[in-house]
Structure formats: C-alpha cells, structure tokens
Design a protein that fits this description.
Elements (H helix, E strand, L loop, with lengths): L5 E7 L3 E8 L5 E4 L7 E10 L3 E2 L2 E3 L2 E5 L3 E4 L6 E3 L2 E3 L2 E10 L1
Antiparallel strand pairs: 1-2, 2-11, 3-9, 4-8, 4-11, 5-10, 6-9, 7-8
Protein name: 2OG-Fe(II) oxygenase
InterPro entries: Pro_4_hyd_alph_FE2OG_OXY
Organism: Marinobacter lacisalsi
C-alpha cells in the first residue's frame, strides 16, 4: 500500500490559500476540474521537487508553464491531472486565488 498525500495548509483566507503538498510514489491524480461555489479560481503551482520518474502534470490549457516547474492555470475551467509517480516523491507549493 502506498503512502498517503500529505497536504499542509500554510495560509487560508476567503480569497487566498497556500498549501505545501507531498505526493508519494505510486500516487496519481485522475483528470478532473475543480469545483468552486463562485468566482474565478486561479492556481499557481510551484514544483519544488520532481520525482525521479512519472508525476507529470497535464492541463488542457495553461496561462503559463515555465519548464514544468511553475504553472499558472484555471483549474475551474480546464481539466488537469498528474501521471502516476513511478519513483520518488513530488513536492508542490500551491497558491490558490479565488477572484469573486
């Protein structure tokens, strides 16, 4: 059995959330769209540590993607996923901004 995702909330407010997330070996994120009650959701993901293999982020449309390390996208509009992490862990700093 693989380890669980560890999600630490670093900051939380009505409009802005900051998370430090560790995705373990064997984990994957199926294609999905994030649901929001209202407004526009933006996410800025900074990949701090890439796994040795696997764990690639896919999104239908990014606002920008800098070397697969810094990604800004609209998770409420565009389907996104992460492939299975084959070896190692994926560490992510994720900033979510909900514009009402």
């Amino acid at each position: 059995m693989s380890a669980k995702v560890k999600n630490r909330v670093l900051f939380h407010s009505r409009w802005l959330n900051l998370y430090l997330v560790r995705y373990p070996e064997g984990h994957k994120i199926a294609p999905h769209v994030d649901m929001v009650a209202g407004g526009k959701l933006y996410k800025l993901n900074c990949v701090l540590v890439k796994p040795r293999s696997g764990g690639e982020f896919f999104c239908e449309k990014n606002i920008f993607n800098l070397f697969g390390r810094i990604i800004l996208f609209r998770p409420d509009l565009h389907q996104h996923s992460v492939s299975r992490i084959e070896h190692g862990n994926r560490w992510l700093l994720s900033l979510a901004f909900n514009r009402h």
